[in-house]
Amino acid sequence: MERVFTPLDCLLPAGNLKFCLLILNQPFDRGHFHCLWSKAALRACADGGANRLYHITEGSQDSFLPDYISGDFDSIQPEVKAYYKAKGCELIETMDQDFTDFTKCLQILQKKIEEKGLQIDLIVTLGGLGGRFDQTMASVETLFHATNITPFPVIVIQESSLIYLLQPGKHKLQVNTGLEGSWCGLIPIGSSCDSVTTTGLRWNLVPVQSGVNKRLNTKIKQAPPVCHLVNSASLQLELCIGQKPFSAAGIKMVQN
């Protein structure tokens, strides 16, 4: 069965997808934040993500209170923690060091979704793709854990990038929101992907083997409105967030 997904629907003011919002301790776009916050069914911060929320809403924090904040609380600023505690936000301390605060926050979020009976389509994460490389890779790792935590797609957005883990199988990506940039990347993580086949790219993959020591499809130009993919193993999709619709151009291959 082909999985149909519109990755950037969540950033449309009139988008149809219902979602929960998880904020990480990374800088994020103010416009993205306000659009996502206004539509989220449930809002959570992972540890220092509360600092980001507090400071980006300076002067109007009372109007932007998260449903809960979780983590080992080694990053949240004392005054920020005290503020949200005084406002009645739920603080959930998770001392388990075997998982990142992102992963642990996602585990709690899934339980909240079940307890509240929320009807959602995906989970949107703000932050997690900037700063230290090891922290970016930790976000990628959490997307793998997410497949065993929640049945919902999990996407990570920061500045001009969106990442999403494509499970093996057939996918139909609708890229016609007008928010997409000019390129995307299809990157195998964990193991090589023996076969990747696409339609809807300017120059398609028909089929190719993708891997770190083979070929990385790191900057692929697309043509709207739909891209079809068939992949034999997990692929990390990176989608450019721009201000204009896709412009058809080409595909850049990097071979090792």
Q: Report the strand count.
A: 16
- Intertermini distance: 33 Å
Q: Can you tell me the overall shape?
A: globular
Radius of gyration: 18 Å
Uncertain residue ranges = 211-216, 244-256
What is the subunit arrangement here?
single chain
Share of helix among residues? Answer: 10-25%
Give the amount of beta strand, in percent.
25-35%
Number of helices: 5
Order of helices and strands: EEHEHEHEHEHEEEEEEEEEE
Biggest sheet strand line-up:
5-4-3-2-6-7-8-15-10-13-16
Question: Which class do the helix and strand fractions yield?
Answer: alpha/beta
Q: What does the largest sheet look like?
A: 11 strands, mixed
Mean of the pLDDT scores? 86
Output the keywords.
five-stranded mixed beta sheet; 256 residues; alpha/beta; disordered C terminus; eleven-stranded mixed beta sheet; 16 strands; single chain
How is the topology of this model organized?
Layout: E1 2-5, E2 19-23, H1 30-39, E3 43-46, H2 49-56, E4 68-71, H3 78-86, E5 90-93, H4 101-116, E6 122-126, H5 133-146, E7 154-158, E8 161-166, E9 169-174, E10 180-188, E11 193-199, E12 208-210, E13 215-221, E14 226-231, E15 235-241, E16 251-255
Parallel strand pairs: 1-9, 2-3, 2-6, 3-4, 4-5, 6-7
Antiparallel strand pairs: 7-8, 8-15, 9-14, 10-13, 10-15, 11-12, 11-14, 13-16
